[in-house]
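Backbone description:
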Amino acid sequence: MLCDVNPLLTNESLYHKLKVRNELSQFQTSIGSTNASEHRHIIPDDASTSDSMSTNNNNVDEDVLLEKIFKESNEGTRDIDDIMVNAVHAGRHQGVNAKHLAKIWRIDEDIAKKTLEITSQRCVRTDNPKLSRNFSTNDRTLRYKHLKDHFFMDTLFATSKAGKSSRGNTCAQLFVTDKGYVYLVPMKTENQVLQAIKQFAKAVGAPEALIHDASRAQKAQAVRKYCNDIGTTLRVLEENTPSANRAELYVGIIKEAVRKDMKESNCPLAFWDYCMERRARINNLTAKDLFSLHGSNAHTSLTDEEGDISSLCKYGWYEWCYFREQKELFPFNREVLGRVLGPATGEGNEMAQWVLKANGYVVPRRTVRPLHAGNLHSLQDIKIERYI
């Protein structure tokens, strides 16, 4: 009798309807659709149901209804969009709506809608009237510049026969785009990959994804956590697929260029890391015939800014120079002979150069000038040359 009044009044009929509704929901989820029902309740009772799919009998069984929907959909006599809508795709994440933004910015609501379409809000904080907990201090996703590029990375090693570099480095982490932009971070050990990624993110930006091989140091949990904090996806390539890693190609290109520079200049092997940093910057500013660059260079392609070669175009690798030594006391000359090892990133100003002194120390100096032809053949300079 209760079922005749309303099927939802008995436990068995209610359970049956919930079970059928659950099966329908799982089917909608599996095909990427959501329920478009306009009913107030999940399972409306028969008294409030006026669906055109129902028959004259208001107590029609749900199984018969689903069977009818399936049959009519296959025959093409019913549009499945009557009960389902297309999949909802995730859009740009926004923490505020246009109405709220128009109110606090004192702008028109239409302008606020357009503003939300062309801006992002990567860091969203929920309102908590009690403030029982502190907000997270992580703002890396806002602090770093976000790059719409994928970077490949790999670790290159120097042979142990040559010993460590003058700065104690034994390897370097290489970051490369598909357009040839190279960023290089010398490292003392392979375990410093996380520090290299942090330096890269601060200096260049946070890319869409970092692609690398299955090296244990590069896929460590700390590396994954940091990449997640800055909004970068970490992708691991399949083992034994070196051709899929773009960085493998540029490891060979950079190594060969450094070999040539050091051979022609007769430079000590201990300064290979300085030479590698200089060669990476030259690579980024050199125009290439790649179709993807469209006559530009890798630096401009990545940053949309014109590259400047002021600190690179004056001196060759390991070239003789005079630099000003402020600590020299009278009557010693403050204009001292040295060797140029490339731009000094992070030291002095943008024009500062690494300079090798006669005592073997490398110092950053911004007051540097090349030698004239007469200086190169001077007996005094040749005598000093023995100590460098």
